[in-house]
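Hi V.,

You were right to ask for the full record rather than a summary. Here it is.
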Amino acid sequence: MSGEQKAEAKGEQAKGKLKETAGSLTGNERMTAEGRAEQAKGDAREAKEKIKDTFKH
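Predicted structure:
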């Protein structure tokens, strides 16, 4: 996985986790859902990069 892509995936995951936590603390269900969606997007990006790495080797 390229370092840049890995950093982007981890950044999305962290941003999503923060948003989810903030939404939970404030009772904002929309923010909680958006946070979960961002985490899922980061997870998907990370998985895609891992698959690409697997086929390179």
